[in-house]
Amino acid sequence: MTAPAQAAPDAVADSVRAATLALCKRVPPVPVDVAAIAAAAGVAEDEVTARWPSAELVVLDAVKAEVAPALVFPDTGDFAADLRAQLTAIAGVFADPAIGPRLVMLAAAASRDPLLSRVFQQRVFTPNRMLSTRRFAAAVEAGQLRADLDLDTAVDLAFGPLWFRLLLGTAPVTGEYAAAVADLVLAGLRPNG
Q1: Are the beta carbons of 32 and 20 closer than 8 angstroms?
Q2: Tens digit of pLDDT per residue, the chain (193 long)?
Q3: Is-contact 102 113, C-beta < 8 A?
Q4: Nearest CA to 21 among 125, 119, 96?
Q5: What residues make up the domain containing 116?
Q6: How far apart are CA 56 and CA 60, in angstroms?
Q7: Beta-carbon neighbour count of residue 166 at 10 Å?
Q8: What is the distance between the alpha carbons of residues 181 and 177, in angstroms, rounded to a whole number?
Q9: What's the rounded Cα separation, in Å, for the pair 44 and 38?
Q10: One domain for residues 48 and 106
Q11: How far apart are CA 156 and CA 96, in angstroms?
Q12: What does each C-alpha distance from 71 to 12, 44, 184, 193 come to in angstroms?
């Protein structure tokens, strides 16, 4: 009896995440609240709120599951190519009309919701930041980046411009823009750059 009880919550969670992502992808955009998520998933609202206290936390989980495979920082040994690939992949996610606007919404909501902010830090920001910092450190060790590099500043320099455009909507986040950012970052961070 224990196995079916454990399988059911996972099936419900998977259904809720899939329904949430489907709602995020609707054009024109629709509000994504707990009632809409529950209705789309075919579950009771209390089944949603038992796992996620807010719709934003469901959106965070659904979006993270959707985009995580595309955002693994490559390590081919060629840091320049890897950085371009990573920033271009991020630009693709940010430009996705189902994902980019929801990330903006999550950032705005996190500024008002301490739980969402903490969960975003724990599940998204910190793990991605650690992987990026490790990749930059490996490039320093390989002599592909300056030895005197402040890793936190370098990571901010690489990823900050994409987030700035996404969050403020100052201009589109495109693959071309991401590649240009990568080239500028590399020009400043390479030895003798």
Answers
A1: yes
A2: 333 333 345 889 999 999 999 999 987 778 899 999 999 999 999 999 999 999 999 999 999 999 998 889 999 999 999 999 999 999 999 999 989 999 999 999 999 999 999 999 999 999 999 999 999 999 999 999 999 999 999 999 999 999 999 999 999 999 999 999 999 999 999 998 5
A3: no
A4: 96
A5: 61-189
A6: 6
A7: 22
A8: 6
A9: 6
A10: no
A11: 22
A12: 26, 33, 21, 27
Tokens of 188: 């400043």
In this structure, are 180 and 143 located in the same domain? yes
- Cα separation of 52 and 9, whole Å? 12
Tokens, residue 43: 């579950």
Expressed in percent and rounded to 5, the helix, strand and coil fractions of the chain are: 75, 0, 25
Of 178, 64, 44, give the one whose Cα is nearest residue 127.
Answer: 64
Total domains present in the chain:
2
The token duo for 110 is 């996190």
Q: Where do we find the tokens 């430009």?
A: 95
